[in-house]
TrEMBL record:
Gene for this chain: murA
Family, per entry: Belongs to the EPSP synthase family. MurA subfamily.
Reaction catalysed by this enzyme: phosphoenolpyruvate + UDP-N-acetyl-alpha-D-glucosamine = UDP-N-acetyl-3-O-(1-carboxyvinyl)-alpha-D-glucosamine + phosphate
Protein name, per record: UDP-N-acetylglucosamine 1-carboxyvinyltransferase
EC number: 2.5.1.7
Summary of the function given for this chain in its UniProt record: Cell wall formation. Adds enolpyruvyl to UDP-N-acetylglucosamine.
A GO term, aspect molecular function: UDP-N-acetylglucosamine 1-carboxyvinyltransferase activity
UniProt superkingdom: Bacteria
One GO CC annotation: cytoplasm
Root EC class: transferase
Entry-linked SUPFAM superfamilies: EPT/RTPC-like
UniProt pathway: Cell wall biogenesis; peptidoglycan biosynthesis
Residue ranges of domain Enolpyruvate transferase in the record: 8-407
Record-level GO BP terms: cell division; cell wall organization; peptidoglycan biosynthetic process; regulation of cell shape; UDP-N-acetylgalactosamine biosynthetic process
Length: 426
């Protein structure tokens, strides 16, 4: 277990670069199953989740190699296995992204049900319904989803909810289906556009990605291609909040401003000065933080993946904010830890009522999911005294490439603790 100690109170300043997007890399790695030949993906963040997806591909008989710093090469030939191993898929929900491509490519896929996770039950019913609409016969047996289709056939699909993963899974499967598929009420996240761009380069016929109606005209085969992954908008937003909460002055490079519009708008409403200049953004926070109300929504709404970090920021606002979570049913675990740091937050149904306090106090805290962990880091940067964060490698580092090093480069006081006694002795 990797633990870090943050000594709060340092104002962040300087320049920092955002890594490639984890949530764009994962489905694109899965999409390589649809291709033949060698794909080279660049700007892939070096994260545990990416390594897990590489291991999933390898288990399917595909050669996949990570070349530091940020390139993954994938070689796919005619022999792709059908069964994804239980221990990998249950480790990471995004492994389920292989279902659609595997089925489309080989006509048969056996993938374990990913199960729930800390932020909610997260079923895959919408993925399954979408694949069934393309003609797949799907059975659940002994905890595995087994899908068969000698040839998928395009159809009109209306998703019950604009699920990111279901949109991606169905879009990937439809690229090799016979005829036209129309996905209505599709998710519009930038990661879906990146996946579509990769598939289009590979020879797929897709239009409408980034809108709520995606059309896919099936083709016979896809070729391996090179692709650069988009910047990680959630890492960008997290770094912006880290700058804002410490009243810092930070330039964040490698961003796409269109992807972080809703975050910029909310931070400006909270009194943070933000100027966008091409692919970089300067966050300047001379005054205090004003309260703002937030409702998480699918893109282009405020992202659920930024909700915990925003709650940490608003914990120090000069008034009361109401933060409502509509995407996941159990995404307020950071609230209990923030309260241990002195935050005044009350949970009421889907909302957190955040009464701003003058200061947070450092404390030993535990992150139980990736973004909750990011919220605790952000809080630790400004808290009085020391904040000990456990399980960095199990949660936070699944989604943030070198986050502690990046923050240290901006002036944060973050130390790695080898043993728990290092903390108790200090
Ligand atoms: C993706 C992101 C995750 C982000 C989420 C919402 C990746 C790897 N992960 O997750 O970081 O928080 O989008 O922006 O890209 N649902 C169902 N049935 C389904 C599918 C989803 O009920 O078949 C529900 C989920 O339980 C959840 C909501 O729909 O409550 C949104 O989930 P979804 O958009 O599918 O998120 P993921 O693709 O899992």
């Amino acid at each position: 277990m990797r633990r870090i100690l943050i000594v709060g109170g340092k104002r962040l300043a300087g320049e920092v670069e955002v890594s490639g997007s984890k949530n764009a890399s994962l489905p694109i790695l899965a999409a390589t199953i649809l291709t033949r030949g060698m794909s080279t993906l660049s700007s892939v963040p070096c994260l545990l989740d990416i390594l897990t997806m590489i291991r999933v591909l390898r288990a399917l008989g595909i050669r996949a190699e990570y070349s530091p710093p940020n390139t993954v090469k994938v070689w796919v030939n005619d022999h792709v296995k059908h069964i994804a191993p239980y221990e990998l898929v249950t480790k990471m929900r995004a492994s389920f992204f292989i279902m659609g491509p595997l089925l489309a490519r080989t006509g048969f896929a056996k993938v374990p049900l990913p199960g729930g996770c800390a932020i909610g039950s997260r079923p895959v019913n919408i993925h399954i319904k979408g694949l069934e609409a393309l003609g797949a016969k799907i059975e659940l047996e002994h905890g595995f989803v087994i899908a068969r289709a000698s040839k998928l056939k395009g159809d009109r699909i209306i998703l019950d909810f604009p699920s990111v993963g279901a949109t991606e899974n169905v879009m990937m499967a439809a690229t090799l289906a016979e005829g036209e598929t129309v996905i209505e009420n599709s998710a519009r996240e930038p990661e879906i556009v990146d996946l579509a761009n990769y598939l289009i380069k590979a020879g797929a016929k897709i239009s409408g990605a980034g809108t709520d109606i995606i059309k896919i005209e099936g083709v016979k085969e896809l070729n391996a291609v090179n692709h650069k992954i988009i910047p990680d908008r959630i890492e960008a937003g997290t770094l912006m909040i880290a700058a804002a909460i410490t009243r810092g002055d930070v330039v964040i490079k490698n961003i796409n401003a269109d992807h972080i519009d809703s975050i910029i708008l909310k931070l400006r409403s909270a009194g943070i000065e933000i100027s966008v200049n091409g692919n970089q953004v300067r966050v300047h926070s001379p005054d205090g933080i004003k309260p703002v109300d937030i409702i998480t929504q699918p893109f282009p709404g405020f992202p659920t993946d930024m909700q915990p970090q925003m709650v940490a920021l608003l914990a120090l606002a000069s008034g009361t904010s109401v933060v409502t979570e509509t995407v996941f049913e159990n995404r307020f675990m950071h609230v209990h830890e923030l309260k241990r740091m002195g935050a005044d937050i009350r949970l009421e149904g889907l909302s957190a009522i955040v009464n701003g306090v003058n200061k947070l106090e450092g404390a030993p805290v535990k992150s139980r999911d990736l973004r909750a962990g990011a919220a605790l880091i952000v809080a630790g940067l400004v808290a009085e005294g020391e904040t000990l964060i456990e399980d960095m490698d199990r949660f936070i580092e699944r989604g943030y490439e070198g986050i502690d090093k990046k923050l240290i480069s901006l002036g944060a006081d973050i130390r790695e603790l080898k043993n728990i006694s290092d903390y108790e002795d200090e």
